[in-house]
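About this split. The held-out portion is used to measure sequence recovery: a designer receives only the structure tokens and must propose an amino acid at every position. Recovery is the fraction of positions where the proposal matches the reference. Here is one held-out target exactly as it appears in the evaluation file.
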């Protein structure tokens, strides 16, 4: 089989594993009385992302071929995820947070490193075959997003959004990925101690000296503040939209019945916005592009606050469309900015630091703060008997708060961050 097709399947499966549950598990958790703990299930991804990818990367560099480490991680992630699903099915509404969260955390801890490992496997295979990775990889990576969308739709159409079946789908796909990874071209092991990274280097700790540069320190600070937004809508958009089912007017609308399909428009937008980044960066520069991302988050949350799945569904659709700008215009352009502004000797560590500030610390803290806000306005009132329009009003208050936060960060970034004359 053609190498590019093989790697396309690899990327498709990699992100199909994630798409099976990432946007819908909040609805299941809320349905079994764990709504107040949704934030923990999303924030733990940030915690393990701080150290697990680096540790598995060291293993792939020094002791085991990369495709085998990828297979091992997926096998363990899949088994733990199937365990979480099985326990949830057996327990029904009596499911215990500590047991379910423990199984889920073990799965996520082994899954998160597979994203970087799958990239490494693809890069190594393409380079060995003589391809230019800059040109060859993006068309392959796009199929990862397609895989994410496909499993979102499968979970939705098979009625698994409010069940632990979504975790079973993810776990089964992880086991398929574990087997398929072993068919990938072998990656070399670096046994030359003079070329191996230390643990501190692999974790990106040597890049912390970038904080001595005021401009870079400010950029990383804003990266963390923007990272607060990253997982909020992944965790809460689905339970928010499905909660309209408590109002007769909206109970049978497409959005309430198929929230995952509606939300998948966000991933479609993300795919298209990736293609726009080179033009926007060259035309407007890093500061304006990041401001576009921040304003994208304002609109993402704001449209949720004023929309509904009935006559206002077009506002939900707009929220999905601007998600591509909100997510991609910062994550990808920010990565390019870090690459441009740092010395080659610490470039990889600087990228690790950027990911740590956004998807690690930022996403972890932001998701827990969002959980506290939503518990206060939604789940606590629900526990006290609030229903229907009262619940929706609580959700709307939360989205306004999140939109206001993003707006404040945007204003501060516009005032404090100084752009260079050179375009990114």
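Reference sequence for scoring:
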């Amino acid at each position: 089989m053609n190498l590019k097709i093989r790697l396309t399947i690899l990327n498709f499966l990699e992100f199909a594993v994630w798409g099976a549950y990432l946007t819908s598990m909040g609805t299941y958790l809320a349905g079994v009385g764990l709504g107040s703990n949704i934030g923990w299930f999303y924030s733990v991804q940030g915690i393990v992302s701080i150290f697990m990818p680096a540790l598995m990367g060291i293993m792939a560099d020094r002791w085991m071929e990369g495709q085998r480490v990828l297979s091992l991680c997926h096998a363990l992630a899949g088994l733990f995820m199937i365990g979480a699903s099985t326990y949830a099915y057996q327990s029904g509404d009596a499911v215990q947070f500590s047991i379910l969260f423990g199984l889920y955390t073990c799965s996520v801890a082994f899954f998160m490193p597979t994203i970087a490992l799958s990239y490494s496997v693809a890069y190594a295979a393409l380079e060995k075959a003589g391809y230019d990775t800059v040109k060859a990889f993006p068309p392959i990576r796009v199929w990862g997003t397609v895989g994410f969308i496909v499993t979102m739709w499968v979970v939705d159409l098979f009625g698994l959004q409010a069940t632990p079946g979504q975790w079973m789908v993810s776990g089964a796909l992880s086991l398929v990925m574990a087997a398929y990874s072993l068919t990938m071209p072998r990656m070399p092991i670096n046994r030359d101690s003079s070329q191996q990274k230390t643990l501190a280097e692999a974790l990106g700790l040597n890049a912390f000296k970038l904080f001595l540069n005021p401009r870079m320190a400010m950029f990383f600070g804003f990266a963390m503040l923007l990272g607060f937004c990253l997982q909020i809508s992944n965790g809460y958009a689905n339970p928010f939209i499905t909660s309209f089912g408590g109002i007769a007017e909206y109970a049978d609308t497409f959005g309430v019945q198929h929230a995952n399909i509606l939300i998948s428009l966000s991933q479609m937008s993300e795919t298209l916005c990736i293609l726009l980044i080179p033009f926007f960066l060259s035309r407007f520069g890093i500061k304006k592009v990041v401001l576009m991302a921040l304003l994208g988050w304002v609109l993402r949350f704001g449209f949720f606050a004023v929309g509904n799945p009935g006559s206002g569904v077009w506002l939900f659709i707009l929220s999905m469309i601007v998600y591509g700008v909100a997510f991609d215009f910062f994550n990808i352009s920010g990565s390019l900015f870090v690459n441009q502004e740092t010395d080659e000797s610490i470039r990889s560590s600087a990228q690790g630091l950027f990911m740590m500030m956004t998807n690690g610390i930022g996403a972890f803290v932001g998701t827990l703060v969002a959980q506290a806000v939503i518990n206060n306005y939604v789940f606590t009132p629900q526990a006290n008997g609030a229903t229907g329009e009262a619940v929706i009003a609580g959700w709307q208050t939360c989205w306004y708060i999140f939109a206001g936060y993003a707006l404040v960060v945007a204003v501060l970034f516009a005032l404090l961050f100084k752009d260079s004359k050179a375009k990114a």
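Annotator remark: The radius of gyration is 21 Å.
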